[in-house]
Specification:
heterodimer, A: alpha/beta, Amidase signature (AS) enzymes, 11-stranded mixed β-sheet, 15 helices, B: mainly alpha, 3 helices, 2 strands
């Protein structure tokens, strides 16, 4: 039996029934990691720690102890999430030797639920990128076709899940960094409501937009993982005390009466025809099963990307000011004085894209430009938030493509940063509005590359995403293609 | 008209504590111009009625007690420092004797 091909919930049942032990399963995952090493999905593995955790779970299970929702299940976390004693590099040369002195809340919650953390996933440097080509530890290859990018910035997490190295992964999503790679790799990627999951222990990129989420091979798996990582944390004041529903129970198998909002702004003439076709079919499936289509209007949507790059770069410039070459990370060898040490360490440690964002961030924050760019962007953010609020008065869910095109070839956009930024045009508005959204596979193009559909819900309504997402997943399994 | 020139980019690099050579700066200015032109799309949105002080998403008042709590050990924090001395971060001399 091919256990590695199973979904998380399926392997959970196999572990519960005693058909396989966690140690056996974990060893299979490490073998798979070795066999698929060329994809470069992981920056580091923690085999000893993982096998010890698996053994502990197996013993607890044998003793009849009450076990958590992820007991014995191998999971990968993105390399910007701290786990005590492991390297947390953020795929940057700057942090190549940084060893976490503490564990992030989201990782601790995984461990508390019995998950076996097996490795740390490759990513774009400091989560800045849409293709995983900015990693200081090498590019990641799309497991569907290794000549293509896996998306980014959580490209390693997506690749690891899609190539069956693990049963689920944590990623972070500031402007689409979970949803875009999930779409490119043909898996399920969830960006929860801002505040749903603690960011404590996750290296900050743009604090007002960053959110931790998960990447899985099925919607049900996504519901299970969110149930584990969600919740208030005294270490993150933006984390919410809002009650955590039973997400798996939210999957009902019916979309009758569901009001689906369609905004023309997401279906413009730049949309790839095969993507449009797949989306049309998916939407028709909902309609055939009792959902209702409502036309909505998001007139300022096309400005969200500019708003995003202004706000996120401004916050990144501030957040990355802490990397000075003194407290941690690389320190330049030859310098004249303390200020020169800062200059040289940062110049040697950061990659090109990170430097570009720091410069852009400091530009929009500098006197003379602050009002025209930063303050204006914050104002437009409010307008976009209000437009979504208005839209959700008319519908329960908004459906759109995750990206306008399927995955692109490695190197295709690496010399045109604006073209790269434009990849995220449909995902960034959700971070700007603080909403939850999920990308689910809804077809393939003629070259076999996956096409992703994005479901967007009102704040805290991840339940709607899981129900509607699972419904389509089942319909596709039953032959809708 | 270009939005940024090499001199401005040089000043920005200084503020960012980053060094670029002249070729990099020239290249950077060209890229930056394109980016800033794109950013201008936000100008078309009417924001005259926006109140930036309105309650933001998930904003809550949650201040913790200002109480002494256990934190990391000195060893744990210093462990990642490129250079340390007697449990402190070591930096080049910043104040000369007699200054």
């Amino acid at each position: 039996m091919d256990y590695l091909n199973m979904n998380l919930w399926q392997v959970r049942d196999k572990l519960n029934s005693g058909e396989i032990t966690s140690v056996e399963l974990t060893k299979k995952c490490f073998q798979r990691i070795k066999d698929t090493n060329d994809l470069n999905a992981l920056i580091s593995t923690c085999e000893e720690f993982a096998l010890a955790s698996a053994k502990k779970i197996d013993e607890a299970r044998a003793n009849g102890a009450k076990l958590g929702a992820l007991a014995g299940i191998p999971i990968v976390i993105k390399d910007n999430i701290n786990l005590t004693g492991t390297k947390t590099t953020c795929a940057s040369k700057f942090l190549a030797n940084f060893v976490s002195p503490y564990t992030a809340t989201c990782a601790q919650k995984l461990i508390d639920a019995g998950a076996v953390i097996i490795g740390k996933a490759n990513m774009d440097e400091f989560a800045m990128g849409s293709s995983n080509e900015t990693s200081a530890f090498g590019i990641v290859h799309n497991p569907v076709n290794p000549n293509y990018v896996p998306g980014g910035s959580s490209g390693g997490s997506a690749t690891s899940v899609a190539s069956n190295q693990c049963f689920g992964a944590l990623g972070t999503d500031t402007g689409g960094s979970i949803r875009e790679p999930s779409s490119f790799c043909g898996i399920v990627g969830l960006k929860p409501t801002y505040g749903r999951v603690s960011r404590y222990g996750v290296v900050a990129f743009a604090s007002s937009l960053d959110q931790v989420g998960n990447l899985t091979r099925s919607v049900r798996d996504s519901a299970i993982m969110l149930g584990v990582i969600a919740g208030e944390d005294k270490h993150d004041m933006t984390s919410s005390a809002k009650e955590i529903p039973d997400y798996e129970q939210a999957i009902t198998g019916s979309v009758k009466g569901l009001k689906i909002g369609i905004a023309k702004q997401f279906f413009n003439d730049k949309l790839n025809s095969e993507v449009r076709e797949s989306l049309d079919k998916a939407i028709q499936t909902y309609v055939d099963n009792g959902a209702e289509i409502v036309n909505i209007d998001l007139p300022s949507l096309d400005t969200a990307l500019a708003v995003y790059y202004i706000i996120s770069s401004a916050e990144a410039a501030s957040n990355l000011a802490r990397f000075d070459g003194v407290k941690y990370g690389v320190q330049a060898k030859n310098f004249n004085d303390i200020v020169d040490l800062y200059f040289k360490s940062r110049t040697q440690g950061f990659g090109k894209e990170v430097k570009r964002r720091i410069m852009l961030g400091n530009y929009v924050l500098s006197s003379g430009y602050f009002d025209a760019f930063y303050r204006k962007a914050k104002r437009v953010q409010k307008v976009i938030q209000k437009e979504f609020e208005q839209a959700f008065k008319k519908c329960d869910l908004i459906v759109c493509p995750t990206t306008a095109n399927p995955a692109f070839k490695i190197g295709e956009k690496s010399n045109d940063h604006l073209a790269m930024y434009l990849t995220d045009i449909f995902t960034v508005p959700i971070n700007i509005a603080g909403l939850p959204a999920m990308s689910i596979p809804c077809g393939k193009n003629k070259d076999g590359l996956p096409i992703g559909m994005q479901l967007i819900a009102p704040q805290w309504k991840e339940t709607t995403l899981f129900n509607a997402g699972d419904f389509l997943e089942q319909a596709i399994k039953e032959g809708l293609k | 008209m270009p939005k940024i020139d090499v001199n401005e980019a040089r000043k920005l690099a200084k503020l960012s504590r980053l060094e670029f050579n002249e070729d990099e700066l020239t290249n950077f200015v060209q890229e930056f111009d394109k980016t800033l032109e794109y950013m201008d799309t936000i100008k078309k949105v009417d924001t005259s009625n926006v109140d930036l002080h309105e309650k933001t998403i998930n904003a809550k008042k949650q201040l913790r007690e200002d109480a002494v709590q256990e934190s990391f050990t000195q060893e744990a924090i210093i462990a990642n420092a490129p250079q340390s001395e007697d449990g402190a971060f070591a930096v080049p001399i910043t104040v000369e004797e007699g200054e």
